[in-house]
Amino acid sequence: MNDAANPGKAAQRPNRVIVYYVLLFFFIFLASQLLGELSTHYNLERFAKISQLIQSAFDYWKNFDEVMTTLFALLLAFIFALPVAWIYTISKSGEDYDPSLVQTIVVLTMVVTGVMIVVGTELARAFGLVGVVAAVRFRNTLKDTKDAVYVFIAVALGMACGFGVYHIAVWLSVTMSLTMYLLWKFKFGQAMRDSAAAFMGKGNKKAVQLAYEQTSAATQERVEQAFERQLRLRQWTEMSSEKDKKKPNAAFIIAASDVAAAQNHIDKALAQAGGKWQLANVQSQAEGKAVLEYLGRVPKETTPAALLDSLRANTAGFIHSVEYLSLKGMKSPKPKTGENAEDDD
């Protein structure tokens, strides 16, 4: 059962953590009092290391200065990381926005601060940290390369707070937040891309390639899938069409849960609209779903929008989506021969 189905259970979890820490500090207090009484009645010199370890752990008044310094450093790390996280939430939208990365920026800054305090100036601790990091494998792929910059900013802020150079941390937070915001506000990379496209002229391949490189990885994947589908359908029309007849220049992509009912409905709707249409391909998917690909030519008496409305009407839920693709102007890649083919090999 998930937390949404049982909100009471989800609400109890923070309470358990709070109760746990209350009991933990109460146990520490009782243990320190017990050790104090035992030291007055028994000689604990035989267990000097254990006694010293227990006293250093439980005598929080003795280490009060270090505790307050640690808490102060963690608090400043949290404060300095918040503006960076806010800039990320402002500059990201849609699928590029990752809520977990926002939390990572804040928490990572505090974690690195604690690590720097623990390591301090001890060389042995530093080597131990290197060994621990080398043993850990992080298998998370960032959606945008610029997200890695936010992670490095969090690491830098944590290191600065951990070493106590707060004047560097505050100016690092201000400068990097302002820089990331200005780059997003004035669309620095977008402006350079538009200037290059205007300089090279409309329709230039280099401008198209530059625009493609500026998009995110998720967008590039969707564009490549759509282009491959259009190219595959175009190749299919050229192979199946006769030379003396006009080739199909349009396609309808229908996602359906009931293939038979969807095919019957689509065939009737296309027959009423006119034109010659044929079912080119059926791609099976999970849970009995399938994608139907129809090829044909849109009659002059109608429009693609009108055809879409007729295909989407009275589907009774067995058709989930209908997509129109234009194949006009697309050409299949010619096979390479001669020297060009040898160069690619």
Task: Please give a handful of descriptors for the protein shown.
single chain, 345 residues, alpha+beta, Alpha-Beta Plaits, 4-stranded antiparallel beta sheet, 13 helices, 9% strand, disordered N terminus, disordered C terminus
Give a description of the structure:
By secondary structure, this protein is α+β, with helices and mostly antiparallel strands. It folds into 3 domains: 1-62, no CATH class; 63-194, no CATH class; 226-326, ACT domain (Alpha-Beta Plaits, 2-Layer Sandwich). Helix content is 64%, strand content 9%. It has helices spanning 7-41, 48-58, 64-91, 99-119, 123-135, 147-162, 166-185, 188-200, 205-214, 217-240, 259-273, 304-312, 339-344, and strands at 250-256, 277-284, 290-296, 319-326. A 4-stranded antiparallel sheet has the order 2-3-1-4, with helices on both faces. Strand 2 and strand 3 form a beta hairpin. The longest helix has 35 residues, at 7-41. Mean pLDDT is 72; it is low at 1-5 and 338-345.
Radius of gyration: 33 Å
Strand content: 5-15%
Q: Structural class given helices, strands, pairing?
A: alpha+beta
Give the overall shape, derived from the CA principal axes: elongated
Strand order of the largest sheet: 2-3-1-4
The figure for the number of domains is: 3
In DSSP terms (H or I, runs of 4 or more residues), the helix count works out at: 13
In round numbers, the mean pLDDT is: 72
Strand tally, please? 4
Terminus-to-terminus distance: 56 Å
Please estimate the helix content: 55-70%
- Uncertain residue segments: 1-5, 338-345
